């Protein structure tokens, strides 16, 4: 394996140093999958990150107690072989898989599970300082985690919480090695250890993250000997690398290039619908967007049909609200804001706003952000056509997240954003609730607050009746659509392209990238 890995690393270094267009005959190493990522990961600690770009790596290094069943958002066993739920929905008892070890050789057991959740949720935990843990909101209902015996762990919830199992299957629920956290502390995100199908080998900043096959994986060893994730932030460069053979897989193919790959027998294009929403966060606390009429004007001003049909070339549909249509059990459909520049102008006049000045944060790329620079420019032009004055500020993805996630107040009036979610609760609860402001650890960067929405979200997440949940989320969709705290733009159908040699590659509705079953000669 060491000899193989020297060749893998040498090849990866060569790719990183070579302009793809200059070498049309470039080849990746045999039985090693090279994946072109859209950005550098922020961390390899699953509890500290929020981006699907990072999750695509992490789900191959770690397992959770449960996972999403292939091709669905249904939950199935993983590190837990089975579980029971109490009649009141407040106690979950998991029976754990025996004989599983972390990559560092330490044992996976109930105490390890307890360590993971206590680290995220208890401020007095000795390793709470290795956070922050931005998506620990997913487990806010957990009051206690008890190790009953080495193979039995119990979760006590403060109230029934419908998305609990789904949230455990999401990457924030992945289980890290307590021994590795204790050894590396704040540097754990650079020294990860899980139980997954692949083991971490190295992370060279701006070049590659390398993982190798775990021969002792509880669910059977992977076929691939290794995977190299290369951050290639520029979409045109990723396309050139794919064409030249410098990478085997490219995620999030630019719409301009999708047809070309589909027509070339040397490539295979994968597509999968999922719960995604692309939107513009509007600063509802200060500036022009503090007035609902101005926010509605922005939604009428932007031609979303042109964005999805021309810019995104039919790879998305127009978004109507914060809950994606992939959750088809949510009742009460709302119509997307029509393109109506005259209505937008009338609303601005009604609000008494003339030539409102906006600062608009745009990112160079990022998870689910599609074509953010082009989309930002189109949105800017449409807003200016009805009387807004828009100044764009563009940032690299991780820098962008740092600025947006801490809140827009005093800095910007709007910012691009995209989320891929696993439950209709996730995005509204983390990004639209009054108690999810940035200073409270949430993602409500535009400071939207509506007590009725707060109440509906609390009711929906504690209901165990999916029909009732569907009605409640339908009401959330209607209210938020009308309040317009966001510029609702697009729901995307994710895509990826592989070389014809890659077999068994699938995209998942969860937007995660499971490479366990992939082969490549």
> Mean pLDDT, rounded to whole units?
93
Largest sheet: 12 strands, mixed
Content-based structural category: alpha+beta
Computed Rg: 23 Å
Count up the helices. Answer: 15
Distance between the termini: 17 Å
Q: Topology of this structure?
A:
Blueprint: H1 2-17, E1 32-37, H2 52-58, E2 66-68, E3 75-77, E4 80-85, E5 91-96, H3 110-121, E6 142-149, E7 152-157, H4 164-169, H5 178-184, E8 198-204, E9 208-213, E10 226-231, H6 235-244, E11 249-251, H7 255-263, E12 267-273, E13 276-282, H8 292-301, H9 304-311, E14 316-318, H10 341-350, E15 357-363, H11 372-385, E16 389-395, H12 397-405, E17 414-420, H13 426-431, H14 451-462, H15 466-483, E18 486-499
Parallel strand pairs: 1-10, 1-11, 15-16, 15-17
Antiparallel strand pairs: 2-3, 4-5, 5-7, 6-7, 8-9, 9-10, 11-18, 12-18, 13-17, 13-18, 14-18
Helix pairs in contact: 8-10, 14-15
